[in-house]
Amino acid sequence: MTTHEILTAAVKAKPAVAALSNERKNEALAKMAECLAADSEKICLANREDVEAVKDAVSPVMIDRLTLTPERVRAMADSILQVADLPDPVGRVIESISRPNGLKITKVSVPFGVLAMIYESRPNVTSDAAALAFKSGNVCVLRGGKEAIRSNIAIVSALRRGLSEAGVLPDAVALVTNTSRESARELMTASGYVDLLIPRGGKNLIRSCVENATVPCIETGTGICHIYVDRAADFEKALNIVDNAKTSRPSVCNAAECCLVDAEIADRFLPLLARRLRDDRMSAGKTPVELRLDGRASEVIDGTPASAEDFDTEFLDYILAVKVVDGVSGAVEHIRAHSTGHSDAIVTEDAESAEIFASSVDSAAVYVNASTRFTDGGEFGFGCEIGISTQKMHARGPMGLKEMTSYKYVIKGDGQIR
Amino acid sequence: MTTHEILTAAVKAKPAVAALSNERKNEALAKMAECLAADSEKICLANREDVEAVKDAVSPVMIDRLTLTPERVRAMADSILQVADLPDPVGRVIESISRPNGLKITKVSVPFGVLAMIYESRPNVTSDAAALAFKSGNVCVLRGGKEAIRSNIAIVSALRRGLSEAGVLPDAVALVTNTSRESARELMTASGYVDLLIPRGGKNLIRSCVENATVPCIETGTGICHIYVDRAADFEKALNIVDNAKTSRPSVCNAAECCLVDAEIADRFLPLLARRLRDDRMSAGKTPVELRLDGRASEVIDGTPASAEDFDTEFLDYILAVKVVDGVSGAVEHIRAHSTGHSDAIVTEDAESAEIFASSVDSAAVYVNASTRFTDGGEFGFGCEIGISTQKMHARGPMGLKEMTSYKYVIKGDGQIR
């Protein structure tokens, strides 16, 4: 099927999918999980072909991300079942308004309609996104990367069989098998077909979607996250938080990329930080963190001199930019200029500094005495996430099922005219 | 100032404006209203020049829209005071989440930041938009049409003096005085400067913004609104509603453009409709409504034969497309294919038909037994509106102050790491 045919079928499936009860949706999700698990061998075989095709061209990390095993397919099926267990995000009464003229206005959550996803990540995104879109009453049109196309075809084929077995139109979940740039462009500009576009992947993919999309598009992802260690910080907490935010999973968007240290305590804190992130890790046989220091920090400890770019870089690696700032106002000023608006934290025992930071930093998630790594749908209690929005329109921060719905107003009257 | 300089100043003013208390904002709004009223003569003089410049080229309706009088300026000032009276949309706690690990997550409303508006309507939009943006903690960058540029300069000059007198940065409200296409294009693509773009005006303006914007943009406006008269309709209510929705103000987006009539009652209802919209209006010396009839309707009453296009046209005039459909499912099917998702209504005394219609029609506002003319921020009880969104992302239907804010999560911990 051409991308256009897929989109046409998706629009056609929209009303039926939107009208499904929570029970029907959950039955279908169970069937989707069942078929996925049943096709495990087939999926892993297809995946092996994908891996073979790129194995000489990409890094071991990339190979690992691409690779599926029976265990991983099992985990994908389990994720679908977990999505089924979440409350139905559709049909919630968000607000009820009674007007003096007798009109009763109800603001009620509804699906977007057709949700398009362009992504380049692991094949498990395919089943995750399909489950989340379906649970929120949306039809989804998925366009994964070329490197995972055989895996994605096998996965979507299983999911669609699950839908059919549950008596639901299989067009509720569709895969664009053409992985050219043109097919991506077609989704971005499919006005009247695509109600919401969610790109997931690297900076270039996101940029391309934001710049070229004429359909509503959510900007996700890039996180240049800061931890500011205030003069009133508990050093133990500060070290734990910076360490966790930097090293627990450096490749993710909620990992810290920059540590700002209050000038008042730089002399005392920086040596502790260097020991914790470099020496201690080295002794423990772990990758040490490379510290890229601004002028003032390098007067206190050794490290790589930071270039100006280092403060605008999402390293996604064991690298941390370090800068000495003048108190909370200096931290806020730096963050305003360099943050991507994802997650930023202050470590302080001073309630006033915490308050200034929390109200002045305009990021999706602003932390006081906690790691930026918590910016995640699961950690926020949403039970899942489709991505993390770094823009302010519609959704900000982790996007769960609720953020995958829109709303409408239903107004009941008795003949009112204006 | 160039558009770029204006945008730079706007970004700089953002934190200070976002941090203003409700009291400070209200004081400033009072000063803005005061200065506007004080400058009434100056504004009307500038407006006369605007009117002189176009008076031979445009319709009397356009001239009337453009013209300001001391009374109209007074009304603009009063509107600003009314906005001041509304509750502060910033700083609302939308949700509080306590996590098992002790994290306290607060979802709190925040301003967008820099709000750009491109519009071509009456000069009162300038002061209305400025007041709404300011009350919601946003800096606004306004770009009105060329035809009103002298009026807009005079209005914004008064508003900025008001801000200064209240001790607020006048850059909170800025006017782009370059009214070329290029300045509009610059706003649409000002990534990193403009946090939200709201176009207001004709179809072409909106289309151009949606297609060219790389900044988050709200699609507003076009309304092809339907009234479906069901077999179980109370005819008196139906006639009142269709009449009101079509004739009370034909030039607005929530006016009805199409009446769908259930085949079961077409024989009885259509003659009443023709009498009400044509004969009665003619006898009363009012403009009769031209009925454009589909094949089945023209078997019952006289009228202009409808072309296919008539069912996809926003007439904004005393013209109504009329079609006979087979029950509520026929109505829903037609609306799905032809509605712009603005406002659609059913007239019926049958609860089941009402329910089917309300749940199946996916428009911003779905009415049961009331006129589509109620789709309006004031009528919904929002106290104001900046526009009516016809898309599903972020805001749908009338956008009040609440819809002019985003949110952020503030997470407080005690050293939590993940």
Tell me what the structure shows.
The structure is a homodimer of 418-residue chains. Chain A has 418 residues and is of the alpha/beta class. Chain A folds into 2 domains: 3-220, Aldehyde Dehydrogenase, Chain A, domain 1 (3-Layer(aba) Sandwich), CATH 3.40.605.10; 225-374, Aldehyde Dehydrogenase, Chain A, domain 2 (3-Layer(aba) Sandwich). The first copy, chain A, has helices spanning 3-18, 22-38, 40-54, 60-66, 70-85, 124-135, 149-165, 181-188, 203-212, 235-247, 266-283, 295-298, 327-338, 351-360; strands at residues 93-98, 104-111, 114-119, 139-143, 173-175, 196-200, 225-229, 256-262, 290-293, 304-305, 319-325, 343-347, 365-370, 387-389, 397-399, 405-416. Chain A is globular. Chain A starts with a helix and ends with a strand.
List the helices and strands and how they pair.
Two copies of one chain form a homodimer.
Chain A: H1 3-18, H2 22-38, H3 40-54, H4 60-66, H5 70-85, E1 93-98, E2 104-111, E3 114-119, H6 124-135, E4 139-143, H7 149-165, E5 173-175, H8 181-188, E6 196-200, H9 203-212, E7 225-229, H10 235-247, E8 256-262, H11 266-283, E9 290-293, H12 295-298, E10 304-305, E11 319-325, H13 327-338, E12 343-347, H14 351-360, E13 365-370, E14 387-389, E15 397-399, E16 405-416
Parallel strand pairs in A: 3-4, 3-6, 4-5, 7-8, 7-12, 8-11, 9-10, 9-11, 12-13
Antiparallel strand pairs in A: 1-2, 2-16, 14-15
Helix pairs in contact in A: 2-5, 2-7, 3-7, 5-6, 10-11, 13-14
